[in-house]
Amino acid sequence: MDWYLIRSKIRQEFLAEANLHRWDIESFCPQIKQTKARRGKKQTVIAPLFPGYLFSKFDLGRDYRKVTYAHGVADVVMFGSTPAKVDDSIIQGIRSRMEDGFVSLDSYSFSPGETVQIQEGPFKGLLAVFERELTGTQRVALLLKSVSYNARLIVERDLITHVANI
């Protein structure tokens, strides 16, 4: 049996996972804890790591219809006419980052106004000013420093480092 990528109906990842389990089909919807401001108060909420998606391990010939008709499932993600297989190492990699049932994401401590350096990509080596983290993503907004102008740039959080660490 292989792992496949499943697209859930909007905000029904956990319902889809529960219904697949009822059919004795292994599924995995990694979760994270996030702190969000609601009505002026900070609250910890549980959210899927990949909103709208989960993983399921099943026999394609035997269980495909069960999976596609499970409550909460929108469809099996396809590449052309072939269901999207997910390598076991990806599932194990996600599971290895779990603590107390939730995926632990690396925390970065950048402060607004701090100078950072971009480590990869087309802007590698350039200095920028950290502006803010973008909510619910692993991206940050930076102000790119240049001699003649400053430009706003959005990059993956992993691609920047503190200038003091260089």
Automatic annotation (TrEMBL):
UniProt KW Cytoplasm keyword: no
UniProt entry tagged with the keyword Transcription regulation: yes
Name under which the protein is recorded: Transcription termination/antitermination NusG family protein
Taxonomic lineage: Bacteria, Pseudomonadati, Nitrospirota, Nitrospiria, Nitrospirales
Superkingdom in the source lineage: Bacteria
Domain NusG-like N-terminal: 1-98
Keywords, alphabetical: Transcription, Transcription antitermination, Transcription regulation
Species for this entry: Candidatus Nitronereus thalassa
Pfam families from the UniProt entry: NusG
Annotated SUPFAM superfamilies: N-utilization substance G protein NusG, N-terminal domain
